[in-house]
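agent> fetching stored inputs for the nicotinamide-adenine-dinucleotide docking request
agent> found them:
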Amino acid sequence: MSENRERDLLAAVPDSLFIGGEWRRGERESTVKVYDPATGELIKEIADASPADGIAALDAAATAFETWSRTPSRQRAEILRRAFDLLQERKEDFALLMTLEMGKPLAEARGEVAYGGEFLRWFSEETAHVQGRYGANPEGTGRMIVSQHAVGPCFLITPWNFPLAMATRKIAPALAAGCTVVVKPAELTPLTTLAFAKLLEDAGVPAGVVNVITTSTSGAVSEPIIRDPRLRKLSFTGSTPVGQRLLEQASQGVLRTSMELGGNAPFVVFDDADLDKAVDGAIAAKFRNIGQACTAANRFIVHRSVADEFARRVTERVEAFGIGRGTEDGVTIGPLIDDRAVAKAQSLVADAVGRGASLRTGGSPIDRPGTFFEPTVISDVPAGSDILREEIFGPVLAIVPFDDEDDAVALANSTEYGLVSYVYTENLARGQRMIERLETGMMGLNIGVVSNAAAPFGGWKLSGLGREGGAEGIHEYLQTKYTLTPNP
Ligand code: NAD
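agent> prediction call returned; pasting tokens
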């Protein structure tokens, strides 16, 4: 990968706020600094929005809503479809940009472009299918009309781990439904969202329909937007504690909210599982995105009779990983996002090992530029270890043995989260029982990756509210009106 290509790509990314169809500096002199986590080098400085800039973005979204919400759905669909096509043309640029600002291996970044793009295509197809109902009431005294309406201007807050897909998963259904948006990407990875806003502009999205604010002061900029009575919807993807704080703020305006929060996914391997498939699934469910996914398997709950063999096989695979900058050939493990993530992985491993877990491989930060942590396997993790309770968000695979099915279910459900669960068994009846017994918004049965634009993504319990994707996704941005009228 040539340095010139990286430099040219970064230079082409807008460095300003996108408000009301204009690229403009914020009112502050300060900048948001973006670093390459694989080298620790500063790669770009961009505008740092103030609270007043945030309100200016909401002004633009509120003004544009009048027209966009009345634009025929077919026209909205065609713009989204053009955005999908443009993303295919620019897919290599988007993949490289994500690798540079977030660190994921290039092959995975390409996968994210493919996945993220599907939301544009899916919701371009869904928008014309939103329908109402008309019919006689049961008494026969009148006609009932049920219609769907765009909820209004929305505020979309996205995390750093999937810079493109988390943006398209919100922007595409919002626009499809006729909503306008203010988007606030994570301060660690704002460049992909700015490049995507440029793409939407090129695709013909009208001025003010999509506005982007980048800021180093997320809390101070977000709160006035959330408390503004013109805002009608907040959609957030990020950690549970921040989501809880935002829900409190949103309660004042009784906002519609979608909350895609943290996870603590169990990965259950029964003694009747196909172990080859389970190991493949485990590697994907754990190490994709260097373990930094809300859907990452967090606890490997493995039947005692196969636990040692499972640990041996995953360790063998992990020791063969290529580690390095995501742009290099053969790299499957890039850096973690920052120092804090490295320190967290290290302390979770140290706590478990201190309580008696066996360290099979890895366990330490890697001494090189950037923020790297060794891919790690630990087994026989004792109950009470922090790693079983907290979201790891790093390349650490932790194995806990179990003895029978009830035991496995109790362990899997013993978490305040409920985003996704993975189960490996060749016994159909057991698989069906697990579908019924696990407290989870999503489940992979003999498969380690479940995300799909056509499916409802979302969690139970502290993992969130609402669904993104699928037929459900557009309804997060629609509200229902019931009208009664006398018989004709
Ligand atoms: P985070 O909560 O720190 O940040 C998420 C976003 O919120 C960022 O844009 C950040 O700038 C912003 N933010 C932080 N404090 C804020 C405040 N006070 N007011 C307004 N905005 C604020 O999370 P993160 O570290 O960026 O992402 C990792 C977390 O996201 C993990 O917990 C992961 O599980 C979760 N996640 C969930 C999903 C899902 O779909 N359920 C998907 C990806 C990530």
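agent> quick read of the result: The two ends are 70 Å apart (CA to CA).
agent> awaiting further instructions
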